[in-house]
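FIELD: query
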Amino acid sequence: MSPKPPHTGNSADLSKVEWIELVTTLHAENMELLEANALLVDENRRQTEIIETQADMIAALEQRVEAFERRLSLHSKNSSKPPSSDGLSKPHANRTKSQRGKSGRKPGGQPGHKGTTRSQVDNPDEIVDHHPQTCPQCQHDLSHCSSQGFVARQVFDLPPPPPLMVTEHRSHKCLCPGCGKLARGSFPAGVMAPVQYGGRIAAVAAYLQTHHCIPDDRLSQVFFDVCGVRIATATLSRLIAKMAHKMRSFSDSGNCPGCRWRFSAASNRLGGAHSGFLIEDFMSRSGHVWRTHPYQRTC
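FIELD: result
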């Protein structure tokens, strides 16, 4: 930069020549500053381009490193690679370790714990008497002797599956004496075809498939093995779809019209996509009559 001209005193004392020299000097300095600023801008642009290029290279290298690490972590336990490819370093089995510490107490029921043993009922559904035929000591005939007491043991079991119940709905025609035209009785809601399956079968099918994750073909086999009725898989899918439509009417509203149980977003695992709506969870929460017979009622 050019040296500044000597300047002393008030600027009004400068002569014309000195003013010209001062302006020329300031102009030269301003041009030098503009050139330096242009160089800095150009350098900044180049540095920015280099940084962007390096960022792209770093991202590509990170992806390659992740791919290599993923390939190195594969072994016969977590991929389709054969065990022979593991080499000498066999992978350790991933076992979950309990976080519970030792309490110092013995396993099992603790003293003072109330048990939940099933008790005998007063009126069993069936009584089977077992009389001794002969005396175990002298082999005397005891078939005509009366009982002197007994010891009862009760067995709780499922009843044998009943045969399929068929309900026939008849829509009668009556002749009106007033106008002379025939009037026909109305069928109940849902009775649409000459032959169809009822709501209990649809409810059980929806419950078994949505809550217990039984596929269509196995669900058809369950109905045949337990109830003695063979239902096609397409029919089961159609029944479950209808049940889903019925359940959505109050699942979306948030309340059950039968018991006013309040649904929440966390409890509705089906989200309207399937049926059943976790009927077992619904029963245990609401204390509904479904708790004993979940297939006898659908809201």
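FIELD: remark
Helices lie at 16-72, 199-212, 216-227, 233-251, 279-286.
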